[in-house]
Amino acid sequence: GGIGIMNIMLVSVTERTREIGIRKAVGAKRRDILAQFLTEAILLSVVGGALGILLGWAIGQAISANTASTGTAIKAVLGADSVALAVGFSVAVGLFFGIYPAYRAARLHPIDALRYE
To answer: For 64, which of 13, 57, 89, 113 is 20 to 30 Å away at the CA?
Structure first.
């Protein structure tokens, strides 16, 4: 998942090179660009993590319902600590794999970015 996030973010940086150049030309600092792309990467990974949590919960409920009808009851429990761990891990993955694309975007020179086609 992390490699996918990095690839998506690198494509996003490439497609938005002119936008980055315009933002830097009107006064955006490196940390502003870095924060924008890191936030985007973290948001992308947290949404993916939330969908994974919901999918896991749904599969657990289906297994619980299926085993209850067969006589061997397996009860699926979703604890708050598991959800917190999953969300924390999603944030860490987004941060780790979003650093390189965000750093690459922040290093762009405004003039070169504005010339980019």
So the answer is: 89
